[in-house]
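RECORD TYPE: inverse folding
INPUT: structure tokens
STRUCTURE:
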């Protein structure tokens, strides 16, 4: 069964055709400014290079409390997904627009929704509950949902393969570091803690997102500055993180400038790493220890300096990186020191393969 994986981003639509053996047959990225996909370009892609698929997998950011695993899409599912737009107003509409566009051109194929939140449905109540008034939590469904679930789920599947061990009770700290960034504590294949919360704003410092900020600070700004809720949301989502600290959202030039001693870039990297180290340590606490540390995502895969500096100071947890192996690695592999009690892996982010896995499972039920 070949699966067409559809991943709608902020300005593009990624299409990948995945064979039954997880081989990528073809892939294409179409421009989609403001989440609008050009119908002619989509038709050309689906009729041309991508070839024939047997089913379609759609990445959907939010599944709410209802969807705990991938689900075959029907009219009831579509209606529920539209009702969840309020929980992810920046991301859900893009996914649903892509769903409509592709479905209109491939109406006969079964389609499956694969959720970024579903992997975290196993979080225990202690991890997902906010200490807020019960009337708020009950009325609005306020809880930690977590995101990047497709990436973290792929890590849970891929890490044992790279270690050449069966899917056993590994304790994994998964670091998805890209434009968005989150950590996940994975115990025996299940998420037991994560850094993103009710929205993808919580947790680590990211490219343009602030990560966790004292809510009292935000209330203070609302009271004293000419800042309304819309302006604050824009600043927290698009003007903060590395961009707010160093004026650039791209980790590569920020690292280069930090290497030259530029003060704002040095501070940005220091803040980024301070939060990252603290988060990794917190995930190990949720697991009661750690067997494997995994880096994935654009920064996690391609910035050896971040991997090395993130683990510096965490030697007390058994994390030791082999510097030459870390610097030389291309692709996936083990960059931990020989004999280190915690293995340190780099795993290529393959949400498309995870979507294909989940789609086959959903269609076989």
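DESIGNED SEQUENCE:
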């Amino acid at each position: 069964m070949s699966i067409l994986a559809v991943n709608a981003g902020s300005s593009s639509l990624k299409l990948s055709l995945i064979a039954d053996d997880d081989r990528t047959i073809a892939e294409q990225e179409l421009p989609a400014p403001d989440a609008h996909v050009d119908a002619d370009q989509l038709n050309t892609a689906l009729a041309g290079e991508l070839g024939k698929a047997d089913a379609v997998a759609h990445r959907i950011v939010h599944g709410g409390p209802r969807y705990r695993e991938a689900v075959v899409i029907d009219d009831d599912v579509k209606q529920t997904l539209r009702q969840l737009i309020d929980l992810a107003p920046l991301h859900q509409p893009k996914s649903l627009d892509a769903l409509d566009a592709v479905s209109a051109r491939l109406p006969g194929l079964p389609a499956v929704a694969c959720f970024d939140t579903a992997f975290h449905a196993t979080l225990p109540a202690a991890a997902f509950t906010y200490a807020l008034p019960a009337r708020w939590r009950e009325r609005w469904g306020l809880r930690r949902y977590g995101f990047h679930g497709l990436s973290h789920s792929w890590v849970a599947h891929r890490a044992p393969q790279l270690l050449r061990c069966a899917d056993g009770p590994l304790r994994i700290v998964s670091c998805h570091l890209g434009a968005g960034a989150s950590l996940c504590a994975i115990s025996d294949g299940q998420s037991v803690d994560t850094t993103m919360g009710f929205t993808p704003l919580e947790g680590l410092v990211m490219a343009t997102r602030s990560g966790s900020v004292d809510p009292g600070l935000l209330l203070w700004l609302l009271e004293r500055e000419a800042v309304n809720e819309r302006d604050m949301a824009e600043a927290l989502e698009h003007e903060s993180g590395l961009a707010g600290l160093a004026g650039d959202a791209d980790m590569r030039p920020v690292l280069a400038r930090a290497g030259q001693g530029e003060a704002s870039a040095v501070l940005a990297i220091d803040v980024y790493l301070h939060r990252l180290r603290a988060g990794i340590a917190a995930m190990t606490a949720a697991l009661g220890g750690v067997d494997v540390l995994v880096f994935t995502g654009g920064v996690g895969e391609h910035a050896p300096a971040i991997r090395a500096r993130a683990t510096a100071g965490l030697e007390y947890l058994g994390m030791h990186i082999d510097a030459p192996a870390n610097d030389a690695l291309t692709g996936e592999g083990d960059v931990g020191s020989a004999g280190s009690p915690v293995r340190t892996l780099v795993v290529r982010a393959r949400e498309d393969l995870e979507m294909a896995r989940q789609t086959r499972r959903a269609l076989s039920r």
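NOTES: The domain at 3-115 is CATH 3.30.420.40 (Nucleotidyltransferase; domain 5).
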